[in-house]
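User: For my dataset I need records formatted as: sequence, then structure tokens, nothing else. Please produce one.
Assistant:
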Amino acid sequence: MAKHISDPRLIRLKKPNGEPILSWEDWEAVYEQNPGHFVQHRSAYSIARFMLEHGGDTYLSSRVSQLLQEPAVFHHAIPELEIRFDAYGKGRFHDLGIYGEGKDSGKSLFVGVEAKVDEPFGEVVKDVYARAMARQGAGVSTSLPNRIEDLLALHFPAKPPGMWATRYQLLYATAGTLAAGMDTSILYIIVFRTPSYDPEIGKENERDFADFMKQAGAIDLKGDGTARAYKMTLGGKDLYCVYDYFDLQ
């Protein structure tokens, strides 16, 4: 028998094709072309458990409301939501894209959720760029060097030397969140402490996140002791970035 959502009233869940998600099986079907990505205790599986079985919508709306200092109203959410942020190919795939608004201000809201257990934020920028340039030099047609150069210019106009040691995934995660085009944009990284979570790798990931925020000139909002929060400006647009933890044993 299908396991249904405990309380679907706060937020509507949809597949990328627009079909409703009403059960665990509906969510799992999002990954039918890539079942190896939907593994117990890992990130994609954990965000599904969080939303379907642990009141994830209530938790996130409360956290976002605290951040924005006004009630956040969520309308619908889409797992594996792709948002194009440039003209160089595939866009940013959010583990969960949430659309809503600020209740008092009426401003449109997008929360791009990045789910983690202890998966790293990809390779460092210099390694991705060097490999892309080598392929281009070997005659392979690739626009990846152009994408990276544009992302670096967007995030690091002062060109700090440390930008090359930041994690590439964070470059396009932030750009892909802003590209949703809403009045208020939030990149929400949530780390699930599952039985597979490695605390040492987790600490390293948090350090990578904090270093990226520092290199990009983000303002440290200090958070609440359990979550870290920052505000950065990219291309004249504000972006909130949150790093949070949730126990999911």
